[in-house]
Amino acid sequence: MKNPTTTQLITTGVIARQLGEPLHRVTNILATRQHIEPRAKAGTLRLYNSEAVAMVRHELNAIDARRHKGGRS
Questions:
Q1: Whole-Å CA distances, 40 to 31, 32, 64
Q2: DSSP string, the chain
Q3: Rounded-to-integer distance, Cα 17 and Cα 38, Å
Q4: pLDDT tens, residue by residue, 16-56
Q5: Rounded Cα gap, residues 51 and 5, in angstroms
Q6: What is the distance between the alpha carbons of residues 42 and 20, in angstroms, rounded to a whole number?
């Protein structure tokens, strides 16, 4: 049985897969947004929690909204 207080930590690749986004978009967000920090590190891997995933999703949606707003008249 899973402990309900245990947080699942995931890699950048898993975040990209969950959000249906290319890996380069997710890594760009994580590299340029200092407020999104990994919860843990395992060697060279950075591990993120569900809150970080939500912040990445928000940032990607904001970028897409600005792109679509600028392209329509």
A1: 16, 18, 29
A2: ---TTPPP-B-HHHHHHHHT--HHHHHHHHHH-TT---SEEETTEEEB-HHHHHHHHHHHHHHHHHHHHHH--
A3: 17
A4: 999 999 999 999 999 999 999 999 999 999 999 999 999 99
A5: 14
A6: 24
User: Could you tell me which residues come within 8 angstroms of residue 11 by beta carbon, excluding any fewer than 6 positions away?
Assistant: 45, 46, 47, 48
Query: In angstroms, rounded to a whole number, what is the distance separating the alpha carbons of residues 43 and 10?
Result: 14
The domain locations on the chain are 12-71
Check residue 9 and give its pLDDT.
97
